[in-house]
Amino acid sequence: MNQTPLIAPTFLFRFAVPIRHLDVAWDNVTLDTLGKAHLLPSFGELEDRPVFANLHGAWNEDGLYFQLDVRGKKQSAWCRETRAQDSDGLHLCVDTRDTHTIHRAGRFCHYFAFLPFGGGRQSQLPVSQMLDINRARENPKPVAPRQLGVRSERRVDGYRLAAHIPATALTGFDTEENRRLGFTFAVIDREMGWQTFSIGAEFPFFEDPSLWGTLELTL
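^ thats the sequence. predicted structure below, dont judge the formating
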């Protein structure tokens, strides 16, 4: 008889993955700049959770770059600029100190949302925002949406999105001093579900940095 485990397997591990260097500035990044070498894993597969998206990541001294490809959809993504935290899209958490011993976020912890649509008069433009982390002890320096880069394109069965978090939007980002970043993500989709870096939505990982994994900045 099959039994549901009392503790999710991914909860028992802290995942660390390499993220490759990118010799391209954001102005020259397209929606398909990042290739197989930049693909980031989604360890939710270990628990047979949904995998409907490919997320690629890269870094350089100017910041972090991500490319998201969502396929298999029959409905349009649900995105609202005024409700970014509840919207379909790419939701990322980054800790520039890679601290895993705290349960409440500090000033080096960031939460970003990148939506493929939802902005502009007709809600057709992509959206980028830094959001507050619930229960945070201290917040990073404020970031205006215009500081973040985002591009997107509709596909017949989904969308593709490119995002840039510049170094100026990451409190404490210093690639000379620290090549490890605390990290987690969720690709949220009302039709397809949640695809996450490790543990699932039953855990409050957006507000608890001890539940994040690590990105290792490599060449």
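The radius of gyration is 16 Å.
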